[in-house]
Amino acid sequence: TPPPATGRYTVEPRLDPLSGRDAYVDGFELYTNDNFGADLGIMTGVRKRGSSSAPRLGFVAFPLEQLPPGAEIESATLELSSDPRPLEFALEVYRVLGPWVEGANGLDDSLDGVAWGEGPQPLNDPGFARPTLEARPLSRFDGAPVPARWDVTAAARAWLADPASNHGLCVAPTLSEAEVAELEDGSHYRSFRSRDSSSTRERPCLRVTYRGAAPRAPEPYAVRLAAHRAETAAALRAASRLAPDARLTRITELLVAVPSDVELRCARIRTLLELGRFEDAIHECTALERTHSAPYPPVAMEAAAQILREPRLAAEVRRADKLWLVWKTYWSLLDAEHVPVEVHPPRDFRLSALQTRIMVYDEFELVVEHYRRGLALWPGARELQEEFAALPELCLQIARALREQPATVERGRRVAAEALRALPCTLVQARELEQLAR
To answer: pLDDT value at position 343?
Structure first.
């Protein structure tokens, strides 16, 4: 057999739901150890409130099976896609020196996957602690162009020499304490597309140019997907014969490997409902809503409606730490066929979430979107109509309060400008909002 032809080649392994890993973790106050491996995005940046702040770190890991033995890497570039909004600070990329797990759930209901390993939420597995990063960054990205690119040649060469050392890369913000102090309170980040993004061309990519034999052809995604679905169906049939607790454990093990798998996640929802773990089922519906674009699977809508009809709902909801996400999940998952009258989140629940999302997190558009969604589901709901009509006055109160504090003046301007743009205001309200937006 003649030796393989050698030459100069470029391969572009791109992550997908069945290949590689990615996640981001939060280190901020009660969010410490939250893992968002199943999200559609990889958020990297900083969260700040007063004197408290912490970075969000993004993790990615690529398989390199396309490279042949003996390849000599000339260059390797990490490429991440995002919206072209301004970046307030540079982002550096580091080689990760230890193993990590992507995480399947998001939020903090089970604290699975790579995390910080310290803080108010104790990890249930020491293996989920944040792995060590190489002391010096490989390269940095200053905000342009889009997509973001980092030179990671040194890391790729090290992985090829020792495949067991391929623990991927970490993207982190570059901010001194003084620079963080200058930031307004709130979230400052760039959200990159994850391997679960519906836009296949925008998923994380590692572009490698090398000299050597021709690259190995990757197995087509459709082939891998068909095999995965067959394996999942067989595993779920086997799990269905287990007791509910054992079945939940088995489904969770399967889900960690492929966090975006809809059938596995829905099977987990059904099992949680069978066990009477309603708040955990709410969290799981939330994860499904965050990790998939509509329309959602009918089983997810049925599960959401079943949760919402439970007599224990009110008590469970009021104990939930993330009321906004629960509300967002309800109204996003439901459609006209799965809308029992009793599924309105309570009025005080909604108003509390509104204050938080507008005043603390600057998420005005989400608030308006969800009220419009609710009004579309329940067009005759007078209470919702009255609350939506009162939103301009609520935004006025919030904008006034934000403008009174030097650290939140700019956010007050944004709230006023967004309210003026998106809400039906009276002439008097519009005039004051115009003044507050200046």
So the answer is: 61
